[in-house]
Design a protein that fits this description.
Two copies of one chain form a homodimer. Chain A has ten helices and 15 strands. Chain A is α/β, with parallel strands linked by helices. Chain A folds into two domains: 3-57, Winged helix-like DNA-binding domain superfamily/Winged helix DNA-binding domain (Arc Repressor Mutant, subunit A, Orthogonal Bundle); 76-247, Rossmann fold, CATH 3.40.50. In chain A, strands 6-5-4-9-12-14-15 form a seven-stranded parallel beta sheet, with helices on both faces. In chain A, strands 1-3-2 form a three-stranded antiparallel beta sheet. In chain A, strand 5, helix 7 and strand 6 form a beta-alpha-beta unit. In chain A, helix 2 (22-29) packs across helix 3 (33-45). The longest helix of chain A is centred in the N-terminal third of the chain and has 15 residues, at 3-17. The first copy, chain A, is elongated and about 75 Å long. Strand 6 of chain A pairs antiparallel with strand 7 of chain B, so a sheet runs across the interface. Chain A binds a DNA duplex through residues 2-3, 22, 31-35, 37-38, 53-54.
DNA sequence: TGAAAATGATTGTTTTTGATTGATATTGAC
DNA sequence: GTCAATATCAATCAAAAACAATCATTTTCA
């Protein structure tokens, strides 16, 4: 058991319990207390933990684990069906916007071999597409670690410099009354993407249709088409308003 | 059993268990410990594993799909020493630029708990810092998948909108004649970062000092200080030109 | 066969670890 | 608050393990 391995274990334990104790460490790792102390001191001098009497604590107790790709996707089959249809709308040569919705993210797997340019503010999308045929542009600005995406005024400004042929976006909710978001930042980005593309698709599974969350940020006419797995009943009224509905079933 | 075959086995075992032990390796492959050591050293210098006392570990225990990490693993001790010094130069409240050099990347681990703002064009840096105390800004523009970073004219424009207190940059080579890069894009980004920060540190290990690659893109006075593990001989002439040298040994 | 490369043995050096000792910090009783 | 008891710490030293360097031996390949 060398230092590197111990360092790993100590940081693991620290992450799990928020604190470690020298005696427990020494016992658990089969090392002397003095070595445990040395380890903690070194880690502390690198700023990786906070040394206390008899042990150590996490420096930043609020740090979240590194869950990069959102695997907690709800009903992935429906979303994949939506994305298959969406991918069918994309031609080689297209310049497309993709935002940071969880459904939009699943579109990546279907467009890896297309000769297109993707402009996005979503870190997972960037990661997914970075080594394939598509050419990537990244929206710059403040990074929101909660949503793993870039937002803010600089981002909006940046988006406005581009013009896309198609945009594929998500929302938190949509009803005949308009589009709904959870945060103002999200709303601003969505609006800007839509305003700078020739044709805007909304990707949303059935659970989003009819949902009105706290911020109504745009009229329905911001977007041109909805790609969804929802059926007839839920979609009543949308087509009357000139919306194109692409049903995936 | 030749080296190639052993190399394969070692990497296999490393992948399976995350670490290898010299004694076990020697016994398992029917070679002397000294040969095992030699093998591990060679693999380490190729960046394929991380050498430890008595064995070796996987380069990065967290699965990272891209080989960027590998470059970062070439003589990691020297680079880590450089980064420790660099981290020591950073104060809470600083706004810092970080570019896409492999040494610069290793700085991440030492600044995770600092209360600073990091502005970067490097995807690995973003990935590494996305869930910690630092606040992140991403430079937008064209994405270069080779270097896993953003570059191009839009990126330069974007950088110019920010002003940092300190910049931590890498280069391909540096001599008393100036700074050298491999590509014009890289050179442009480096220059822009340096021009928009109050104080610019160059992080470079000994192999970069004195090296002159094909594109000389700036005079020495673009940067303020060099942090390096190189010793006296190689550094002759730099201090005469007003350069601050922070030696890590 | 002979030169070059790879391997192994030997040597002394460096790194890592643990033990000891005296100093310092923490705790609880007063 | 003071004091003593206890725990933790830093510093120094010694032992063990791992290491690098050198040289001899074996293997490889032309």
């Amino acid at each position: 058991m060398n230092f590197q391995k111990r360092k790993q274990k100590i940081l693991e334990q620290l992450n799990a319990h928020g604190e470690v104790d020298i005696k427990q460490l020494a016992a658990g790792l089969a090392i002397s207390e003095i070595t445990a102390r040395r380890d903690l001191n070194q880690l502390a001098s690198d700023g990786l933990l906070y040394r206390t009497h008899g042990g150590a604590m996490k420096v930043n107790p609020f740090e979240k684990p590194h869950d990069f790709i959102n695997k907690a996707a709800k009903n992935p089959e429906a979303k994949d069906n939506i994305c298959r249809v969406a991918a069918g709308q994309i031609c080689d040569g297209d310049i497309i916007f993709m935002d940071c919705g969880s459904t939009v993210f699943r579109l990546c797997q279907f467009i890896k071999n297309k000769k297109i340019k993707v402009i996005t503010n979503s870190l997972p999308v960037i990661y997914e597409l970075q080594n394939c045929a598509v050419s990537l542009n990244i929206i710059g600005g403040e990074f929101d670690s909660e949503r793993q995406a870039v937002h803010g005024s600089m981002a909006g400004e940046h988006i406005s410099k581009y013009r896309a042929s198609k945009a594929f976006l998500g929302v938190d909710g949509i009803s005949v009354n308009g589009l709904f978001a959870n945060t103002e930042n999200e709303a601003a980005i969505t609006t800007t993407f839509a305003n700078n593309s020739d044709y805007t698709y909304l990707l949303c599974d059935a659970s989003k249709i009819g949902k009105e969350s706290y911020l109504r940020f745009a009229d329905l006419d911001l977007i041109d088409a909805i790609i969804t797995d929802a059926d007839g009943g839920k979609l009543e009224g949308f087509e009357d308003k000139g919306m194109v509905i692409l049903n995936v079933n």
